[in-house]
Amino acid sequence: MQLSKIKHSAVFIAIVGIVLFSAKAIMVKLAYQYNVSSLHLLMFRMLFSLPFYLIILYFFTPKLTHNINRVDYLWLIFFGFIGYYLASYFDFLGLQYIKAGLERIILFAYPTLVLIIGRVFLREKISSKQIIAILITYFGVIVTFSGELQYNGEHILLGGFLIFLSALTYASYLVGSGWLIPKFGVLRFTSYAMIVSSICVIIHYLIVDRSSIFQYPYQVYLLGLLMAVLSTLIPSFLVSLAIKKIGASNFSIIGSIGPVSTILLAYIFLDERLTFMQLLGAIIVIIGITLVSWNTSKNLKNL
């Protein structure tokens, strides 16, 4: 019973974190209506969230229970650099050229990338149930976005390539976080990673831009604050906690709910149409998530 509760709570935490992260794409598209640059928008997201991570790191992180060496800190800096700086920057750039819906189907390549990276670098096995779950969820996402694939944009190839780079860097972060979180703890690892990412964004701004960030209407700053709290601060801890409980591979498959939540949010806030095929695809994706949840329960019972 206790293991079942752990499984259900972990899956629920993962889903909430994924849905909140998915809302970021909607906020980015809304902010682009005010002609804000992708770098400035990323700056607002990180600057508004940075004070929260500093407070959490100073006041709320428990003492380390593992021996941490210099190499561990170097890996943490590396994964903070690629996970919430590079991945976010590529994503923000790509969203300038393609729809939020199409962004999600390309970004959804990361579950497969997580499994491949884990297999190549960590020699983790890919179970038959994980393969089945991936096939089901991929099929659901393809059905969901069948209409979006016909989207014709002038820079669609560039946008798609940037989003794929975002998926690749985010997958690398997930694999690394699954290895480092047990050493640092959820709060400490997430806070350090986000602080590193914020510093990277600031350095990027100082090197390549330096234009005024105080020239936009209040809606841009409000969206930046919402992204910082609802789509960065809260889900970053939820995702780290979920990865700690069920592993990066299972979390990456559950992440298939992200495209579905983006469809619904885009329909509500961006007036993107919701078709029968999209609803059908959403149901198929949920079936895949249920399979992962059942598989996680079996794994926990075998512990």
Automatic annotation (TrEMBL):
Its main location: membrane. It comes from the Bacteria. Keywords: Cell membrane, Membrane, Transmembrane, Transmembrane helix. It is found in: Cell membrane. The keyword Membrane applies. One of its GO terms (cellular component) is plasma membrane. The keyword Flavoprotein does not apply. Residues 9-145, 158-293 form the EamA domain. It is a multi-pass membrane protein. This is DMT family transporter.
